[in-house]
Design a protein that fits this description.
With about 150 residues, this protein is mainly alpha-helical. The chain is about 70% helix and about 0% strand. Helix 1 packs antiparallel against helix 2, helix 1 packs across helix 4 and helix 1 packs across helix 6. The protein is elongated and about 60 Å long.
């Protein structure tokens, strides 16, 4: 039942965002009463955090399997896995923009997510550059440069 509720949240939050979705709508999408919904989850904020955390766990499992230098191809695997669930992508698009405001239940989750991703990719690009495997091409008009540094 919890998974059915979380699936209903993906749909509801994907359409109306966190602020636009209601507990009543989520319960209806899950095919249960609001009381039944509250039996499993105490609040809409708890639902949002659980939906996002579940997706982060799935994504982390894909990324953990990759060699650090293969992380860019792994990111493409994550994108392909996400293509099968457009509602989840819609949810992330809406919620990530909403979560830029302080006080949003997902604000810290997204801040930490993007900080971690930025640091991880910076480390990988530095490692690739150090191994001479990163080629840099400058934009037109600036010239053309291929370098291992």
């Amino acid at each position: 039942m919890r998974q059915k509720i979380l699936d209903a949240c993906v749909e509801a939050f994907g359409v109306g965002g966190f602020h636009g979705a209601t507990m009543k709508e989520i319960a209806e999408r899950a095919g249960i009463s609001q009381t039944g919904l509250l039996h499993h989850f105490d609040s809409k904020a708890e639902l949002l955090v659980e939906v996002l955390a579940a997706h982060e766990r799935e994504t982390a499992a894909i990324v953990r399997e990759a060699d650090d230098l293969d992380i860019l191809r792994t990111q493409l695997r994550v994108v392909h896995a996400n293509e099968a669930r457009p509602g989840l992508i819609q949810l992330h698009s809406v919620i990530s923009s909403e979560a830029t405001t302080d006080g949003h239940p997902a604000h810290e989750l997204y801040r930490a997510r993007y900080d971690s991703l930025r640091l991880h990719l910076t480390r990988i690009f530095a490692e690739l550059r150090g191994r001479g495997r990163l080629k840099v091409k400058l934009p037109l008009g600036v010239g053309h440069l291929e370098t291992g540094t």
